[in-house]
Every structure is written in structure tokens, then in C-alpha cells.
Automatic annotation (TrEMBL), chain A:
Keywords in alphabetical order: Signal
CDD domains: TroA_c
InterPro entries assigned to the protein according to its UniProt record, in alphabetical order: Bact_metal-bind_prot9, ZnuA-like
Signal sequence, start to end: 1-22
Protein name as it appears in the record: Zinc ABC transporter substrate-binding protein
Source lineage: Bacteria, Pseudomonadati, Pseudomonadota, Gammaproteobacteria, Chromatiales
UniProt source species: Candidatus Thiodiazotropha lotti
UniProtKB/TrEMBL annotation, chain B:
UniProt KW Nucleotide-binding keyword: no
Residues of the signal peptide: 1-22
Name of protein: Zinc-regulated TonB-dependent outer membrane receptor
Region (Disordered): 227-251
Keywords: Signal
Keyword Nucleotidyltransferase: no
Length: 301, 405
């Protein structure tokens, strides 16, 4: 009986393995990388994302459906830099898929390919949940994202040389469109320079670095810790002396803390999409930047 | 003295700064974590604990009274190379006034076999059931369910090999088998030249939309038991005042079913989160019980036992950091033997009592590394009913690996 089940399952497995030969089976840890893989791979890639824009990529579980998906993946794309440290190593161990282990060609760690901000000088848990390798939320700087896209395309060609020509063509197309967009974005975003905003978590460091915006403070007293009343009170006092234009939070963070601080300080709350799917009109990386800038520019009009 | 202290502090600072510098590249360093667990227990009655119809062993007991420590665990793990991962967990605990170090886990596991296959060798928690593979610090209540207490002495762990395979299917399907030594409770004697016990299990699981995830498992464990004593928790004095230790030899097999279902709004568990889980086990044993009193002709009986039970629990995080949980446990047994009196002396006659327990808990986690818990249990697992209040803290220091689903 058991041997029959095993036979049946291996037959299904072989069928699936064959259909996967026609391209790459991509497992993305976050929606931004799923979207990038789709942009670069077109119909030659089958992409699943482990998280949605409504989920906090720091905190998801190595649940059965994800183990099953990683088991069949040819390419694993994650932010890395310890963003997924709470669940990805467990998934890798459980999936039994050699190709997507750290150090293998099938594991693409995006943040490690670019310079990272906020690298802590001291690691101490009393300072909050710090990432030793620096801030992993790198996709919000379009220049870094372009560098990552070029490296990812190379990796896809390496893994699936049969479709190399197509990947190269799509990469050149993406590069052209992205560079044009960067020019447009940098022109329209000029008024944002020097804009002071309060953030929920350190999700926006790369965006601020790009646009030369100023992080005026965080609702989280320490990274990863929820906002406390005493912290918000002292933050309010800081704001009275040196006001900020808005309080930013992502789609996956509860707006409660931001609203509470808004009532306290009178500062407006702005929800930014943060990633693909973070707002109804954000369907790819281009619209992610379009919508982010549109919402921020409202603050300076 | 003060200069020595200063020197010590300087050395510590140097070690810490080196560790911090190297932390960005942890691949060459084992991940080290330390779990600290402290408790306060309050009970309504003082009688000796027993579980009617079950021979207790392993870690089984109702817990300590007053201030005491739980298991302090030191965990080291790392990828050995590109093929193996290694892990060791040492639990430091006090038993009867003696501090003991227990090796809970010491195993290597393959990383690079591919094809969904994972092999493990060494000492590990068996893949049987759902809760069995979780460390006590990851449990949602301060103690194990009664069925784990009654059958496995809280947890089933053994030395041996484990092989599992994840099918390449859209739905999560995993099958596995273990062959182990069979020397630790509830097996004994390392029969068959040290290959005395085996386990097979299968799990399926998946998502229901983006908010729900589930897993269902079945498992079976069997052993040839040679001389299982009930672990010192259950000594009986005979009429002359000598000690008798009930000792079982024979076949033992356990079959179980387990499920877990989790829900969180849009799959985002940071705000609210509900987990419902349950397990049911049934054990059949066929052999002999001897009341070992170190004499040449100890009392004995044949033993044909059926012991079963389960638990059902729900844990709800109603706001960040705060959770409440409710658990119901029940046990039953139907044990027969040629000499009912000997069976009763061995604690295997339940005297018409079916153990049950209701447990309510609330806990607060300041961060993902610390938790404080208050638990109340109405314990009717033995004949003297008890109300048990436990206050517990659990913290983890150092790099803390991900928990299983």
C-alpha cells in the first residue's frame, strides 16, 4: 500500500518536474521580488510570493504550503540581510531542495548585492531587533533596485540558459524603462528634498536616502517593539520643537499607533504602499514608485 | 579583588566585541541560544501524584511547588558544511535536589540531499504527533498534555536515524520513518541489539485562502519493551516494607492523529492570531508486568493494556503581545491481566477513574524573546482533585532559531 502511494507520488513529481523544464519556478520571499522576477522572466517564469503586502516579512511562519512551494522551486529570491531570519532557514531545512540553499545558485539574496544603510555599530537586543547586516528594505531606492535587477537577470540566464535570449531582451527593456522612470521620478520628487517625516519602523531608509528626506523619529521606541505611550509623549515634545510633515506607515502595519500619535500631535498620517500590492493601483514596481511619490508630493503642495 | 574584576570585565568586553563583529558572518560560528525558564507553582493538595491506569516515567509529574526553575536550555546549532546541519540542546534541570544535565538533542541532519529527502541521525525528538517536536519553551502551556505525560513521560525522544520525504506536489505531503534504540522511556532495554523502536508518520497541510493554514498528521510508534520501570515516580511498598518497582516487558504500539489550524487576518499574525490544535493517541500493550522487589520470585501478571486520550486547545492573541489559551485533556484506559491485584499495585488499574483536566492560561510577550505566563488548571487527572496555579517566565538569549509551524 505504502509503496503504491510512493510510486503514485513520484509519478506526479516527475510530471511536475517535466513541466518545470520550460522555464523557472521562482519562490520570492516578498512581493517586490516576485514582481521583479515577473518583469524579467515574462511567461518563462512561474512566480509565487511567500508574503503579501498585508503581511510583515519579519514575521511569518514556515507553514506547510510554503514548504511545499519551496520544495519545487528552482530559484529563491529574498531580501536577505536577516529580514527573513525568523522563518527562511526553517523553510530551507524542511523543503529538502538542494538548489535553493544558501550559497547555491538557486538562492538570490538581493540586499547583499548593494551597499546597506543602518549597519549597527553595536549589537545588543536591548536596542531592539537589529539586523547585523544593515537595513534590508533595499527595494525603495530605484538605483539599488536596478543593480539588483541586472544581477537577478544574470542569475536567471545562468539557471535557465535555454531561455537566455529572452531574459536578456527583457532585461534590456526593463533597464531602459527603469532609467527613464528614474529621471522622471527624480524631477517630480525634487520638492521632497529636506522633508521631515515620522516613520513607524525603519522601512524607509533607502527611500529617504534617495530623495534626501529626513527621518524625524520612529513610532517604535526600538526597532521591532510596539509604540508605547511614554515614547509617543516624548516624540510629541520633539515634534513641537522641530515639526514633521507626516507620519508614514506601511500597508502591513496597523495604523493604530500612527493614528494615536496623529491625535496627539496633529500631524497627518500617510499610508505608503511599501511594496507591490500595497495599494489597489500598485500592480508592479513602476506603479509602486509612482504612487509612493504621488502620496508624498501631496504633503508639499 | 577589584583589579581581577576589572580584568574579567575587560576580557568579557573583548569577547563580546569580537562576537558582535563576527555576527554579520554567522556562517562560521554556531548559533548559540540560551533559554531561561523560571516558575512558581501553587497546589491545593499534597498527595503523591499518580495517573490512574498509566505507569509514569520520563519527566512525568505534576510540577514543583513554590519557586523553582524549569529547564534551562543551551542550544548550539550550525551548518556543518554544505551537506550537514548539526544541533545540540542540553537541558539543565534539578531532580530531587541534584542538578542534572540532560542531552535532549544531539543530531546531524542532511541539507543537501535534494529531491525532498532529509535524513537525520543522533538523538532527536521523534516526528510522532504535533507537539512532540516542539521544545517545552515553545509550548503554549507550562506543561505537556496529559496524554504526553501518560504515554511518553512528556516527550518522546530517542537515539537513532530519521528519514523523511516531502513530495513535489502543490499540497504539502510529507512521509517519514525512524528507527531508534528503544532504551529510553516508554521503550526500554534497547531490544533487538539496540534497534528496539520505530516510528512512521505522514503529514499533509496547506492554506485556505490567505488567512488560514492547516496541517493534519498520523503517526505510529512501536517497540519491543524489555524491563520498563516506571521511572521512580511510582514506587510501592509491599507488606514487609520493601520497595517494589513495577516493570513491564512486551510489545508496545502507539497510534496517533494530530491537527493544527491557524488563522490570522490576511495572514498577518502580528496583530491577531488564533491557533486551534488537537491530538489523540491510543496505545496497545501486550506482555507481562513484574513487581520487582529484588527477590527471586517477585509477583507478576500478564498485561493486556489499552490506554488512550487526547487534548484540544485554542490559543488566541487578541492584541499584540497578549494571548489567552484554553485546553481540555482527557485520558481513559482499559487494562487487563491475569492478576488484578498486581495490576492495581502497578498503578495500571484505573479504579473507574478517567483523568481529565481544564487549563486556562494568559501570557504577555514583551518582545519575541521574552514571555511571562499565568496558568490555572483544574486538575482531575488523579483522584484527589487539584487546583494548580503556575506563574512562569521564559526568555531566550542569543540567536534564536525559527520555530516550526
Amino acid at each position: 500500500m505504502l509503496s503504491r502511494i510512493v510510486l503514485l507520488l513520484s509519478a506526479i513529481g516527475m510530471m511536475l518536474a517535466q513541466s518545470a523544464n520550460a522555464g523557472l519556478n521562482v519562490f520570492a520571499c516578498e512581493p517586490e521580488w516576485a514582481s521583479l522576477a515577473e518583469a524579467l522572466g515574462g511567461d518563462r517564469v512561474t512566480v509565487t510570493s511567500a508574503t503579501t503586502a498585508r503581511q510583515d516579512p519579519h514575521h511569518i511562519e514556515a507553514r506547510p504550503s510554503l514548504i511545499a512551494k519551496l520544495r519545487r522551486a528552482d530559484l529563491l529570491i529574498c531580501s536577505g540581510a536577516e529580514l527573513e531570519v525568523g522563518w527562511l532557514p526553517m523553510l530551507q531545512r524542511k523543503a529538502g531542495n538542494r538548489q535553493v540553499l544558501s550559497g547555491q545558485k538557486g538562492y538570490f539574496e538581493a540586499a547583499m548585492l548593494v551597499d546597506r544603510l543602518d549597519v549597527p555599530e553595536v549589537l545588543d537586543r536591548s536596542l531592539g531587533d537589529l539586523h547585523a547586516s544593515g537595513n534590508p528594505h533595499v527595494h525603495l531606492d530605484p538605483h539599488r533596485l536596478l543593480a539588483i535587477a541586472m544581477a537577478l537577470s544574470e542569475r536567471m540566464i545562468e539557471l535557465d540558459p535555454q531561455n537566455g535570449g529572452l531574459y536578456e531582451q527583457r532585461r534590456n527593456d526593463f533597464k531602459q524603462r527603469w532609467q527613464n522612470s528614474i529621471e522622471t521620478w527624480e524631477q517630480v520628487a525634487a520638492p521632497l528634498k529636506g522633508l521631515r517625516v515620522v516613520v513607524h519602523h525603519m522601512d524607509w531608509s533607502y527611500l529617504f536616502d534617495w530623495l534626501q528626506m529626513v527621518n524625524a523619529g520612529a513610532l517604535e521606541p526600538k526597532p521591532g517593539l510596539p509604540a508605547s505611550a511614554s515614547h509617543l509623549t516624548s516624540l510629541k515634545q520633539e515634534m513641537e520643537q522641530n515639526p514633521a510633515a507626516a507620519i508614514l506607515h506601511t500597508h502591513y502595519q496597523s495604523p493604530k499607533a500612527a493614528k494615536r500619535f496623529s491625535q496627539l500631535s496633529g500631524i497627518e498620517v500617510v499610508e505608503l504602499p511599501y511594496t507591490v500590492g500595497g495599494a489597489a493601483e500598485v500592480t508592479d514596481l513602476f506603479s509602486l514608485y509612482d504612487v509612493t511619490l504621488k502620496r508624498l508630493l501631496k504633503l508639499v503642495q | 579583588m577589584s583589579t581581577r574584576l576589572l580584568q574579567g570585565a575587560a576580557v568579557m568586553a573583548a569577547i563580546l566585541s569580537t562576537a558582535a563583529g563576527a555576527a554579520g558572518d554567522s556562517s562560521f560560528n554556531p548559533e548559540i541560544s540560551l533559554i531561561l525558564d523560571g516558575r512558581y507553582g501553587s497546589f491545593d493538595n499534597d498527595s503523591d501524584y499518580e495517573l490512574p491506569g498509566f505507569m509514569l516515567g520520563g519527566e512525568a509529574g505534576r510540577g514543583e511547588e513554590g519557586f523553582h526553575l524549569g529547564h534551562s536550555e543551551l542550544v548550539l546549532s550550525a551548518n556543518v558544511d554544505d551537506l550537514f546541519y548539526g544541533k545540540m540542546t542540553a537541558a539543565i534541570a534539578e531532580h530531587d535536589g541534584e542538578t542534572e544535565v540532560e542531552l535532549e538533542e544531539a543530531y546531524i541532519e542532511t541539507l543537501g540531499l535534494g529531491h525532498g529527502i532529509t535524513a537525520k541521525a543522533g538523538r532527536f525528538f521523534s516526528g510522532l504527533g504535533y507537539l512532540n517536536q516542539q521544545h517545552p519553551h515553545a509550548w503554549d502551556f507550562t506543561d505537556a498534555p496529559l496524554i504526553y505525560r501518560g504515554l511518553f513521560g512528556d516527550q518522546l525522544l530517542d537515539d537513532g536515524v530519521h528519514l523523511s520525504w516531502v513530495a513535489p506536489t502543490p499540497m504539502f505531503v510529507k512521509v517519514g520513518a525512524e528507527i531508534t534504540r528503544g532504551e529510553r522511556f516508554p521503550a526500554a532495554g534497547a531490544s533487538n541489539d539496540g534497534v528496539g523502536a520505530s516510528t512512521i508518520f505522514a503529514k499533509v497541510g496547506g492554506d485556505l485562502g490567505e488567512s488560514q493554514a492547516w496541517q493534519l498528521g498520523i503517526s505510529h510508534w512501536r517497540a519491543e519493551v524489555e524491563g520498563r520501570t516506571s521511572g521512580g515516580h511510582h514506587h510501592h511498598e509491599d507488606e514487609e516494607g520493601g520497595h517494589e518497582t513495577p516493570t513491564y516487558s512486551g510489545d508496545s504500539d502507539v497510534t496517533g492523529i494530530d491537527f493544527v489550524w491557524k488563522w490570522s487576518p490576511h495572514g498577518n499574525a502580528t496583530e491577531r492570531h488564533l491557533k486551534i490544535q488537537g491530538e489523540y493517541f491510543i496505545r496497545n500493550e501486550d506482555g507481562d508486568v513484574v513487581m520487582d522487589d529484588e527477590s527471586d520470585a517477585p509477583e507478576s501478571t500478564t498485561y493486556d493494556g489499552e490506554q488512550k486520550g487526547g487534548y484540544l486547545q485554542a490559543v488566541y492573541q487578541f492584541m499584540p503581545r497578549w494571548r489567552v489559551g484554553l485546553r481540555y485533556d482527557w485520558l481513559d484506559s482499559d487494562n487487563k491481566g491475569s492478576d488484578e491485584e498486581v495490576l492495581a499495585e502497578a498503578g495500571l488499574d484505573n479504579e473507574g477513574h478517567t483523568p481529565q483536566r481544564f487549563t486556562l492560561m494568559g501570557d504577555y510577550s514583551h518582545s519575541e524573546y521574552s514571555r511571562v505566563r499565568l496558568q490555572f488548571a483544574r486538575d482531575e487527572s488523579y483522584e484527589d482533585k487539584d487546583n494548580i496555579i503556575t506563574l512562569q517566565y521564559i526568555v531566550s538569549l542569543g540567536s534564536h532559531g525559527a520555530h516550526q509551524f
